[in-house]
Amino acid sequence: MPTENSIYSHGDDDPHLTGDALAEKVTRFLRYATLIDTSDMSVIAVGNMVILFGSVPREEDIACAGEAVASVIGVAKVENQLMARGQAVES
Q1: What confidence tens digit (pLDDT) does each residue in 1-15 have?
Q2: Residue 47: closest CA among 73, 13, 74, 26
Q3: Which domain holds residue 61?
Q4: What pTM value is reported for the model?
């Protein structure tokens, strides 16, 4: 049964995606390949560097998200600025 929103597209195989296209690919991967609640997470790609920011439910999810993103074809560097929900913000 086909879904309305594709989980995977042939463009995801392209190792040369950058910017918005790479950010969309990473976001899809995080939503469908991990068990992390990404509802309060944002993904930005600058070239082939990906920046994660926002919050995740647990402290363990921070490292898990970073490792998952680093495994995506086309990602050269990950800047992980995620925080666990309820974690104090440093001034």
Answers
A1: 444 555 555 566 788
A2: 74
A3: 16-84
A4: 0.80
